[in-house]
Amino acid sequence: MGQKVNPNGVRIRITHLWPSTWFARGKKYRTLFLEDVMIKRYIRERMQDAGISSIGIERSKRTSVTIHTSKPGVIIGKQGAAIEEMRKDLEKRFGGNFEVNIQEIRAPDADAEVIAETIQGQIQRRMPYRRAARMAIEKAMQAGALGIKILVAGRLNGAEIARSELFKDGNIPLQTLRADVQFAVRHACTTYGTIGVKVWIYKGMIFKKVREAQSSALQGSL
Fold it and tell me: In 10 A of CB 84, how many CB atoms?
């Protein structure tokens, strides 16, 4: 099972929460779902090197977009000019009222999305993929990760025949659903083809009582 499903999707309501929180019926659900996809795609294309980990969308009277990033200053801009411009562009493209919030990631070196984006950029800048992967593994383990696995596939080093290479350190219990495993995929576009990068990060076990305590504490602070 652990090798055949997306580790993020299979852990929804166990260790992961939904990235979008809203409710709709019938055709409206399809419209809002596609709009969520387009919003996330637009933000990631606009801020390619901003270290974005995840984008949460909440809908009520207005659409609230929360960007989790390792480089909040890049998205906010000077005196908040960049984030205000993004908010106006979102309202112009998708209509309605938008609110953009930024949350900084505490440990970006142990975040799967940030690591995959970093390796992607290094490969596109022609850094040796082995060096990029090993540096990422070393930083992740120092940042507190209990396990990390990186798979790089494609025409590595410009070889005529595509192949894949795996780098691993620590433990990655993919079949244990209460294990907090993050998964990310990136594609590095190079002159000799596309190099795929997959990253798995294991941060420890999460139990139901701990999750309930965390959610109740969060609700109490709001």
Answer: 13
Question: Given a cut of 50, is residue 1 above it in pLDDT?
Answer: no
SS3 per-residue string spanning 105-127: CCCHHHCHHHHHHHHHHHHHCCC
* Residue ranges of E strands in 22-86: 52-59, 63-69
Tokens for 22, please give them.
Answer: 């809203």
Give the number of other Cβ atoms within 10 Å of residue 204's Cβ.
Answer: 13
Residue ranges per domain, the chain? Answer: 9-104, 108-208
Burial class (CB in 10 A: 0-12, 13-18, 19+), 156: buried
Q: Is 205 helix (H, G, I), strand (E, B) or coil?
A: strand
What per-residue confidence (pLDDT) applies to 214?
53
- Reply yes or no on domain 9-104 having CATH 3.30.300.20: yes
pTM: 0.83
Pick the CATH number of 108-208 from 3.40.50.970, 3.40.50.720, 3.90.1150.10, 3.30.1140.32: 3.30.1140.32
Q: Which residues contact 178 (CB under 8 A, 6 or more apart)?
A: 14, 15, 205, 206, 207
Neighbours of 117 (CB within 10 A): 25
Closest CA to 147 of 111, 108, 105, 200: 200
Check if the beta carbon of residue 202 is closer than 8 Å to that of residue 112: no
The average pLDDT across 69-93 equals 86
The answer to whether 123 touches 195, Cβ cutoff 8 Å, is: yes
